[in-house]
Automatic annotation (TrEMBL):
It comes from Phenylobacterium conjunctum. Residues 127-160 are annotated as: Disordered. It comes from the Bacteria. This is XRE family transcriptional regulator. Residues 142-160 have a biased composition (Basic residues). Residues 132-141 have a biased composition (Basic and acidic residues).
């Protein structure tokens, strides 16, 4: 059975302020409750290699960080436990986080592209040898203006 962050989060309400051990314990206990409705303590002990006291503390929401670490580093633990538990704590799934970051990077790239312009699409002067210098047609002309400012601009007027 797959437990989602929404199922864990809904038992604690919409706003879960801060990240602290008590909330991680509660979220882990809720994850265990949703994953194993019956025979929870024995299933937890068997699944993650915990003793009876550690399994009981996980089921009751009193697990220590050492027990949490055992669960996370166990071959049956890891991301399949961390993702739904931490997603409930942070109120954001890993998928939502990745999509958010991808969109932020796309917006940043779009802004940068608008700021810089399409540099490589500018026409090169064929007489200067940009396309036929043997180094590829994507190079800028060597003899073109190298300075920025009014003097470098092709339509710059000279002072009378």
């Amino acid at each position: 059975m797959t437990v989602t962050h929404m199922e864990i989060r809904d038992d604690f309400g919409e706003n879960l302020p801060g990240f602290e051990l008590a909330r991680a314990r509660d979220a882990l206990a809720k994850y265990v409750e949703l994953r194993w409705p019956w025979g929870r303590r024995k299933a937890v002990a068997r699944e993650w290699g915990l003793n009876d006291d550690e399994a009981r503390s996980v089921c009751s929401g009193r697990a220590s960080w050492a027990t949490f670490d055992k669960i996370v580093t166990h071959p049956h633990g890891g991301w399949q436990v961390l993702l739904p538990v931490f997603a409930a704590l942070l109120d954001q799934t890993a998928e939502q986080f990745i999509i958010e970051k991808r969109n932020a990077h796309a917006k940043r790239a779009e802004r940068l592209g608008a700021l810089v312009g399409d540099w490589w699409a500018l026409p090169a002067d064929p007489g200067v040898g940009a396309a036929d210098d043997g180094r590829g047609s994507d190079r800028r002309p060597r003899n073109g203006p190298h300075r920025l400012g009014k003097a470098a601009h092709p339509r710059a007027r000279s002072a009378p």
